Amino acid sequence: MSMIADHTAQTDAPILDVLAERWSTRIFDPRTPIDEAALASALEAARWAPSASNTQPWRFIVARRGTTEHAAIVDSLMGFNQSWAADAAALVVFATVSSLDGKPLVWAAYDAGQAAAHFTVQAHASGLFTHQMGGFDRATLAETFEFGDELAAVTVMAVGALGDIDSAPEQLRERELTPRTRRPIAESLIVNA
């Protein structure tokens, strides 16, 4: 198996190695099962993410490759995502709870995003690779998994072992070998007084 180029971020200020080394692959090994211990640790990290008033307004669907649930999530993916995400050992749907005790949870999407971020960092530290997707049919997922009015899918995350770049289609190889970039922090700062 060929190794994919080093994707370590070239940062302007020091950051934790686990953050600099984490990147989103689209090439997953289609045969290696999910490392259950690493997945459990990633879910535990998501569980301990901060949330407004400790409401924990997130719910997860974890679907392992080969299950009808995994296939249903793949079917909900749009366009290019369907061409590669089915190889992931697991697909995780991050969903938000819209209210608690009749009160809207206005920070739910932000909090679920923190849970997803904690998941990705722990997954990477545990040897898993991840890729989050926004290109999926939310209504289809809601119907398939009977979300009702209280839940809404925010992202679908592919999780698993890194695949072989040499066996990947050319379009995937090109994307995988593209250097990681981010705009300078100065362009994101509205105020830096």
Automatic annotation (TrEMBL):
Protein name per its UniProtKB record: Nitroreductase family protein
The organism of origin for this protein: Microbacterium memoriense
Record-linked Pfam families: Nitroreductase (PF00881)
Stretches assigned to coiled coil: none
SUPFAM superfamilies reported in the protein's UniProt record: FMN-dependent nitroreductase-like
Superkingdom, natural source: Bacteria
Domain Nitroreductase positions: 20-84
UniProt record similarity statement: Belongs to the nitroreductase family.
Entry keyword set: Oxidoreductase
